[in-house]
């Protein structure tokens, strides 16, 4: 068991771990959709260009949904500022952002830090 005041994953503290799963969906949609569209085209259900186009469109929409969720829905429970933006308003690069969330880095605006034994909203 971890210590009571140890650092916690930021997404766990905000109860938004589903965002990481949303980011992985696009990598499964593309190959599965292309194989599925090929199979449907071989059975003359749908043409291959239409199936591949739909697959690319759905993959792109899931990537955009992930981007919107990461950069617009993650707010600090203490000050209400966006956790995925710098103080000047620019987006934090995704690799730096995910490393910071995994290590439980504090909020750049107020210093809030996710800890075990505390409520996420306090």
TrEMBL record:
<keyword id="KW-0472">Membrane</keyword>
<protein>
    <submittedName>
        <fullName>Uncharacterized protein</fullName>
    </submittedName>
</protein>
<keyword id="KW-0812">Transmembrane</keyword>
<keyword id="KW-1133">Transmembrane helix</keyword>
<feature type="transmembrane region" description="Helical">
    <location>
        <begin position="53"/>
        <end position="74"/>
    </location>
</feature>
<feature type="transmembrane region" description="Helical">
    <location>
        <begin position="21"/>
        <end position="41"/>
    </location>
</feature>
């Amino acid at each position: 068991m971890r210590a009571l005041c140890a650092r916690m994953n930021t997404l766990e503290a905000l109860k938004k771990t589903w965002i990481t799963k949303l980011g992985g969906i696009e990598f499964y949609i593309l190959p599965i959709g292309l194989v599925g569209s090929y199979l449907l085209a071989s059975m003359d259900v749908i043409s291959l260009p239409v199936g591949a186009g739909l697959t690319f469109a759905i993959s792109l929409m899931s990537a955009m949904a992930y981007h919107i969720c990461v950069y617009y829905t993650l707010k600090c429970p203490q000050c209400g500022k966006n956790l995925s933006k710098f103080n000047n308003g620019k987006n934090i690069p995704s690799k730096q952002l995910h490393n910071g969330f995994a290590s439980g880095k504090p909020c750049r605006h107020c210093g809030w830090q996710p800890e075990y034994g505390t409520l996420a909203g306090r």
